[in-house]
## 1
Amino acid sequence: MNQTLTIARRELTSLFFSPIAYVVLGIFSAGTAMLFFLQFGPNNPASLKTTMEGVIWLMIFLVPAISMRLLSEEFRNGTIEMLMTSPLTDTQIVCGKWLGAMGFFVTLLLPLLVLTVVLECFSDPDYGPIVTGLLGLILVGGFYLAIGTFASALSENQIITFLLTVFIICLFTLVLFFLPAASFITPGIRKTLFYLHVNSQFADFSKGLLDLTKFIYFISGTALFLFMAVKLLESKRWR
Amino acid sequence: MIQVKNLVKWYGPNRAVDDISFEVPQGQIVGFLGPNGAGKSTTLRILTGYLPPTGGSASIAGCDVLTQSIEARRQIGYLPESTPLYPEMRVEEFLHFRGKLMNMTRADRNKAIDYVADRCGLVQIRRRIIGQLSKGNRQRVGIAQALLHDPKVLILDEPTAGLDPVQIGAVRNLITELKGKHTILLSSHILPEIEKTADRVLIIAGGKIKADGSPAELRTQVAQGARILIELKAEPAAVRKAFTGLDHVVSVEVQAREGGCRAIVSPQDDCDLRETLGQTALTNGWLIREMRNETASLEQFFIQITADQEHATPSEASLAS
């Protein structure tokens, strides 16, 4: 556990040393603020619901930018050899990397707290949905970052990793948004597809609902992709 | 301390390591010598647990590298071939990171870092950023991180690659100083470097061990090919005739030179023929321009093995495919 945290901490520090981190931070803050002020005004509800639902779409491009370097950078630098010959398991390496990126993702959400303060200044917001919404965003972020960790274990090229991550995330968001409308989809399949859709899974969180099945969806998805990342890393040894 | 038994490694259709077996007792410095692509790095990577072997087994301090991998890795300090470091970190920060991965306490880390900084000459650059260091200093940081947890076994893959002669000397001195404290396995494709530091040399080519012994032992193996080179002011034909007739001469090779000739005489066994040849020249009234004993160096031995590997490779490849 200690060693996992050591890797996470190093990852977090090195993220703050890279220019990508600040670009992501800047775009995310600007994007969030824009989404917020689009619906900010009299007669609108004092909530962050619409903002957060927009943030999920913003994350499709911004989260892969955080995760694209995770393992790819180690492969390119050759430092992976040093990690893999240290007394660490591959699971510790992968989890450490993911945790470090999670740390950065949580700081990304700080602008949302600032917006909450803005709401407080002008009206009387309901804090329940804001807290559950933030929790939901963290779960979505964790899921996206796990996809990113998995993709970064595939290639030492950060651009490939980035595109692959965006693609997989799009499968869970964009594709599942449009696919249920297709004529060949039966109602049974439509239900399954709806369950797999990230945005509909998140919807309850932004409304202030906590549902165990939603937790299971995000946690199992995250675990699945982290597990596949560990297996990929292990398979590198055999190639 | 290190035990390797019938180690085999295939990369697809290529056999990188071909049935290697050797043992290294505690405290010995072993030089792993071979041309590029001989299987040195692969063998070292198997020992450090980075790659699993295709066949055979290896153990470090009694821990099998495959089944007790984590335990085995704890015993090893490893400097990989390209000295991978995190460019954005400071030297001290990086060493702390390595120490933490080795599960060292803060007090242990501070002590160990002071020690290795002193040993590897890092005192001046402790606060510098790794990305801005010269190749020589990076190499020192690499050796320092390998030494940090005071490992029983030190595995250094080409520790002097890319360094200038002064830096090579410094690294060599460092390795000699570490003698006795650690069991050291270092690889190189440059022979003089290994000859000076190692107690024992393993020459590896084409994935096989071609020679095993102390540098002195290997040199005697080579010395049997010693020849005498003599340059005279005389007719080539006469020289050939006179020298061939002498006792203990196996063969004479004569080349015409400007106003004379050069003869290369191979003696029987280890006979020293210099005086006999001198006497012959004197009686024939030939002027001697030059005469020297041409002892084959380890270098030639090494080149010969390398050449063998190059001949062997195509046939092996065709066999495999």
Note: Residues 212-238 of chain A form the longest helix (27 residues).
## 2
Amino acid sequence: MSIERTREQVHEALADRLLPAAPRADVDALLDYMEDVQIAQGEAILTAGQANAALWYLAAGRLQVEVPTAAGPLVVAEILPNHWVGEVGLLDGGEATATVRVSEPSRIFRIDRAALDSLRERAPDAALALVHTLSIDLVDRIRGSNEFLRRELGRDEPGDWHAVALRWVLAGNELGP
Amino acid sequence: MSALDGLPAFAHFTSYERNVLDRILSERRAEDGYEFLSEGDSAQDLSASMFVVLEGAVQVLSGRDVELRRIGPGDVFGTMALLDRQQDRSATCRAVGPTVVAELPRAAYDQLVRSQAGVAAKFKMLVARQLAQDLRHLTELIQRAHEGDDGPLRRAVGA
């Protein structure tokens, strides 16, 4: 897929995939507050342990999620288009729990906490729709991770479950390395 | 005055916003051991509620007796089933000692969304922040387990 997506294409992707219940005006308002950022292939948009208070939306391309381990970086997930990253840091203001690197030429949008607060003031329904979508995603990841971990840790001889568990908590189950 | 005054989690709400929330919250007092929610209960009807702890503490339990965590003033619980309305309650929540909570029924929250979207968005961000903190904690426990210490993770997920 080309990274040269028009605003209309990005709008449609956001509306169809991520904010299906939101009116067109709300998706427009959200896009107005998102910054189209240029990040070179190989560069990190998030670095584990460093402050992050922004949400990133991958419109085209591919991202790679790595976690630091004693043995070096462990790649646990690939992020495909039409997914968010960075929502945990945006919401709780803490440091990034993983490094997210641009692994292919990508089209990426960013909204930081200040912009989200402004969106909430100007277009509260749009902010509500976005936070609802992020909340549902977090609920799915928490539920899915807990079920997966109870099942794996309940085995007599648990297998090598760590990478899958990290993929669950960091990117959800539909994405994989 | 609002019941939410003085809670750090609500410090960034204006007094107007706290008063708006106050009008749809119902204060409830509970004795030690009172069960606000039980794992597996349906959360699909309009009477299902989420709660804000005002005073005291609440245990979040897996099943009847495995404590996953303990929460206190300003924390919210009962949120996952309200966000994901197809699912039943995922944990049991029980008072530890005399406890005061503010109850927010789903129907009242839905009305808030329609009438005060800005306040609803701010409240939902509070809920989302707690979910984010829960996920961050789980991530840290998995990483700790990866380094060889899986005891805290086992306790946290009730395994």
Note: Strands of chain B lie at 26-30, 35-37, 49-62, 66-71, 76-77, 92-105.
